[in-house]
Amino acid sequence: MPESTALNRYKFLRELEEIEKASGRGTELVSLYIPPEKQVFDVANYVRGEHAQSSNIKSASTRKHVTGALESILSRLRYYRQPPSNGLVMFVGHKQIGADQTEMVQYVLEPPEPVPTFIYRCDSHFFTQPLHDMLVEHDVYGLVVIDRSEATLGLLKGKRIEVIKNVHSLVPSKHRMGGQSARRFERLIEQAAHEFYKKVGDLMTEAFLDRKEIRGVLVGGPGYTKEYIIKGDYVHHEIMKKVLPTYIDVGDTDDYGLREMVERARSVLTGLDLMREKDLVQKLMLEVSKIDSGLAAYGEANVRHALDVGAVDMLLLSEGIRKSRAKLKCPSCSYENTETIDSAHGPGQCPKCGAQLSVMEAHDLIEELTATAEKTGTRVEMISKESEEGELLVRAFGGLAAILRYRVT
Ligand code: ZN
């Protein structure tokens, strides 16, 4: 479900923004990263150790805040017999809210990918870099390394490699048994190799076919086998569409080979990611440039209308949008309206009487549009704000636009 994944990623980014705004008066904000395999009691022991040491902190207010944060973490840890499947991340501490005031905040996150290492930090800001690292490359790739004797299949998710299967072939070694004719031996080898490629092809189907989120399949290995299996009739045609045209030369065909392949393909993968966003925005621009904007819709009202009638094929949203859909009401006259407002600035004044409007109800604009899109089976593509195309989407279209299935009037 790519839509929900994009939305989850976005929600997660928003939460991070909130967390990153917090600052402590001293080094008193605690960040804790717990990997899934870590024992909770080990973590609790570690935190108790820090608690004992915190009595040495010179500043009385920092000391009080740090011990408070650690106690809060300890009591929170009691809810867990073991960490959730991706581990746990906690941000706890007193953040500044005015010149002289602080407020205790506590964020407990289950990250989108497993926490790789245990981290304890106490600083004037929360330490969020590892979570950003998880979000940088959000695409999934299928991985295959193969030669005639062995193959390993895996998945690349962000920076993490998951091994799915390792298989060995029954292709006989080069040394011919006594009494066998050379030709017969050749045939045996060919037959066994054919069986092996078929088996690996089937394993690829099993591992990759149902995973719609897979952006591409990387194939590598030491010799010619990697090309042979792809060019022969061994791989499912739907998977063939995703096989990347570059074969990667690597020395091994085990999980180490997978890692080596990913290292070597890094530039290919980064390029693909950016290429995809470029393609999407260029597709939009091409439609926009046609007479009457072709199959493009832009301007929030137009996009909304197209979404409502189910005419949107693909909704493009910039991750940089920070707006809310809000139900507004005037406190002094009867004026009411639903509008899109800038999340940071809040609502404006009543057009009838000039009083400050108040917000009755508000939803994040991206979440609201994505929910509407999901109802009509519309694909949603989040465009990162860092790329040139992402910037163009924001600058020219306020961060949202749509490619339509058909023209709407
Ligand atoms: Zn009014």
Describe the structure concisely for a colleague:
The protein is an alpha+beta fold and 409 residues long. The chain has helices at 2-21, 40-53, 60-77, 129-136, 182-208, 225-231, 237-240, 255-288, 300-308, 365-375, 388-397; strands at 29-34, 88-96, 102-109, 119-123, 140-146, 150-157, 160-168, 214-221, 243-249, 296-298, 312-318, 323-329, 336-342, 358-364, 379-383, 400-404.
Key traits:
single chain, Nucleotidyltransferase, domain 5, 4-stranded antiparallel sheet, 60s Ribosomal Protein L30, Chain: A, about 400 residues, about 40% helix, binds zinc ion, 5-stranded mixed sheet, 11 helices, alpha+beta
Describe the structure in your own words.
The chain is an alpha+beta fold. It has 3 domains: 3-135, Translation, Eukaryotic Peptide Chain Release Factor Subunit 1, Chain A; 140-172 and 187-264, eRF1 domain 2 (Nucleotidyltransferase, domain 5, 2-Layer Sandwich), CATH 3.30.420.60; 277-404, 2-Layer Sandwich (60s Ribosomal Protein L30, Chain: A), CATH 3.30.1330.30. It has 11 helices and 16 strands. The chain has a 5-stranded mixed beta sheet. A hairpin with a 6-residue loop joins strand 12 and strand 13. It starts with a helix and ends in a 5-residue tail after the last strand. The mean pLDDT is 88. Zinc ion binds at residues 330, 332-333, 335, 350, 352-353, 355.
